[in-house]
Every structure is written in C-alpha cells, then in structure tokens.
Amino acid sequence: MKLATIVLLAAVVMFLSLGAFAVDATGNLSVSANVQNVCSVTDGSIDFGTYDPASGSPKNVTGTFSVQCTNGGTAHIKLDQGQNGTGTLDAPVRRLANGSNYLSYALFSDTDRVIPWEGTNGVDFTGSGDMDEVTVYGQMSAGQSAIPGSYTDTVQVTVTY
Question: What are 50-64's pLDDT values in tens digits?
Fold first, then answer.
C-alpha cells in the first residue's frame, strides 16, 4: 500500500510540475465583412385627375414611388419617356394615350418644375436603409386639344447603384 501511495504521490507531483511549466502562445483572428450597396424600387403613381383644356393654366400634381437602398449607399434614379412617349432618354417627350389621342405631360425632380426628370443621368439618391418615398412633380400644359376619355401611360423607373 505504501508503494501505491508513493506512485500516486509521484504522479500528482509530476502533473503539477508540468502545469507550472505551461506556456501560452497567442495569435490574432482577423474578422471582416463587406456591406454591399443594394437597392429596390416599389411602384408608384401620378394622377392628373380631370383635365380641363380650357382652363388656361397648366395642371400641376405630385406622385410618389418608393426606393430602398443600403444605408449610405448611393444611386441614380432614372425615368424613361413612357410607353407613349417620343424623344430620347435624355430629352423625353411624355404623352398619355387614349387610343391614338394624346395629352402631353412632363415630369420633374424639383418643386419648381424646372429640372426635367430624364432617363440618362437621373437624380442622385442616397439610401437611408429604409423604404424612402420619392416625389415626382408632374405638369400637364394648358390648352391641349383632346377628346373626352381616359388617358394613361406607364413610365419605367430605373435605379442604378
């Protein structure tokens, strides 16, 4: 029994001695991530309502659509000339249609309706990370000759990021 005790005691002393000589080695773990700028667009609308060709004043309205981009991510929002439009992306001539009858209208990016919203350069946009409502300023000029009826058009919104 004495021998068993001595062997056990020797094993404990050896184990404790090994612990006393333990050394730590350290290193670093590099951690990274890349946040991608991502955008999406949700359909919107502009309604000119009832148009009176004899009013003598242009009809001004606003409409909206929504864009969501990564917080701080930049984009350009472009509007094409519409299904019934003529002209080019950088100088669109937009028209609402009722069969072969048309009403011209324009879309702007500013409240004063000075800066036309076109489809080449578009309008600068910075995302908040949330779904942001974007306002479009529409104008239909006065005195257009048109037959009664319902007129429509569809303009494509493109968000380039």
Answer: 999 898 999 999 999
CA–CA distance, 11 with 17 (Å, rounded to integer): 10
**Cα 105 to the chain's mean position, in Å?**
25
Q: In this structure, what token pair is assigned to residue 40?
A: 């999406």
pTM: 0.81
Contact 61, 46 (CB under 8 A): yes
Amino acid found at 59: K
In the block, tokens 């003598």 appear at 56
User: Is residue 5 classed exposed, middle or buried when 0-12, 13-18 and 19+ CB atoms within 10 A define those classes?
Assistant: exposed
Strands 131-140, 157-160: pairing kind: unpaired
State the greatest distance between any 2 C-alpha atoms of the chain, in Å, as a whole number: 120
pLDDT digits (tens, 9 = 90+) for 19-70: 567 899 999 999 999 999 999 999 999 999 999 989 899 999 999 999 999 9
Taking the CB of residue 118, how many other CB atoms lie within 10 A of it?
20
